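debug: dumping io for the single-chain case to check the tokenizer round-trip. Nothing else runs in this session.
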Amino acid sequence: MLRHLLSGDLIHIDKKLASVKEDLRDKKIFITGGTGFFGKWLIQSLDYLNMKNNLNLTLFLLTRNKNKTQEMFETLSINRTYFEGSLSDFKVKGLEIDYVIHGAADASSIHSPRSTKGISGITEEVQKLGQFSLDSHVVRFLNISSGAVYGEGSSFLESEIIDENNLKTNYSVGKLRSEKLLNDLSIDGSLVIVHARCFSFAGAYLPADRGYAVENFISSRLKHEKIKVTGDGLAGRSYMHPGDLVVWLLTILLKGRNNEIYNVGNDDEITITNLERLINSFFDKEEYLPKKMCPGKNYYIPNIKKANSFLSLSNSFTSQEVVEQYCQWCLNYQN
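debug: decoded output
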């Protein structure tokens, strides 16, 4: 069973979506990737928005394990229908749907070296979902992409022309090609496609074993081990609160322009060295004293001016606040 999010997070989301949530009224939303980190936050938030505002929402959830997913969301009150299967074998027809949120991703592809078979597996599934959306008369389609499509040494600007040859994994190439493929389906404008290139996040439901810096550092402290920092510690990172993530994703879904790409993340930088100091100070119950540093060239921080300017989106939490809240959640539920 899903642990309920803190009421403060859900109230925050409802308040931040005040200007757009009426666009959810009486809508039917098809969601892939509902059991992952993003999906858990989105579905629980939609349940709260539906209850709080009497939106009469209906969710259609594609899941590989129907029974497990039903159990996960059993306490929610929102109308929902489950379809068991994956995008590769999904054959449901005859549905009338308003919105699609495509968040499913093959975790094994994230670090897999690029291969023709691996990339085509991703794009074929997206092609199938795109055609399903056209057949179901979907009005708006949110494609959850990734900042990984930029590759190394990028300026992380949505307008940047990306050389696919610089991308090294099935995941990054597959995500980039999926964006282009979906845009081709929306030429006549009957299906509005919007893309969210998502960066780094930390918060409830994110398992502390994924192999990235913040999770690795917290996992070490939960095991009473010393944090190991490789490299010079100058690499720059940033972390978005998942409550803000939900606000941004739903706003992009409802108000984003056709075929437009929006970076999603926090531009409040923290170096790897200071991330280590922050997590150690939390577990040791000491004051966090960041070290003044000039960040190195290795950074993964989005340029979010487009979302700021055109959709009036902003972050409500600093990277420090996000990491501290995540530390507390891990201490409560993953220890």
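debug: round-trip ok. Residues 7-204+240-267+301-317 form a domain with the Rossmann fold fold (CATH 3.40.50.720).
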